[in-house]
Every structure is written in C-alpha cells, then in structure tokens.
Amino acid sequence: MSVHAALARPVSGTPRGRHAKPLPAWPRVVARTFFLVIALTSAGVVVLAGWPPVLLVVPAAVLLLLVASVTKLRTAARKIDTIFAEELSRETVPETGEGIEIS
Predict the structure, then answer these.
(1) Total domains present in the chain
(2) Residue 5 belongs to some domain of the structure
(3) Nearest to 100 by CA among 1, 15, 3
(4) What's the distance, Cα to Cα, between the start and end of the chain in Å?
(5) 43 and 59 in contact (C-beta within 8 Å)?
(6) Cα separation, 74 vs 32, whole angstroms
(7) What's the pTM value of the predicted model, to 2 decimals?
(8) What is the extent of the structural domain holding 75?
C-alpha cells in the first residue's frame, strides 16, 4: 500500500473532519437515561431494604475506574494515530537521508 493510500484511508469507521456528519445523539441519550434509571433503582433498593448505603460505594468506584480507563485508552489511541499519521506523511531521500514532507 502506498503512503498516499494509507493517508487517504480512514483510521476508524467513524468519519472525521470538516465535512463529516455528526453521529445521532439518541443512542447516547438512551444509554445515559437507562444508566440513570438503574442507578436510582439500585439506590432506592438499598435504602428501602435498610442496607447500609456504603454498599453503593463499591459499584460507584468500579464505574468511575471504568470510565477513567476508557477515557485514557481513547486519548492514548488518538495520540498513537497522530504519531502514525505524522510518520506516514514523512519520507526520507535515500541518497541524502533528509526527511521530506508529503503533501
């Protein structure tokens, strides 16, 4: 595969850039609403059952760690994509060893 073909190929399945259409928001809204309902139901069950509210700390901590790790993974993936894109857009001239930018 040529460098130009690699640069032209999208990195992931989602379109990015100035003319990319935004993805629909309803899946995120539905997921967040579902999560909120489950969280409130769980808190209600714990309170109504007379259990100590400290039982909600462990699931909340797990959720926070999961969100933090997913965010860090996405940031790291973006950085790696940027590094690879920069490397693909640079070539060296075999005779001189100088780097040139490909536009």
Answers:
(1) 1
(2) no
(3) 3
(4) 17
(5) no
(6) 19
(7) 0.44
(8) 26-101
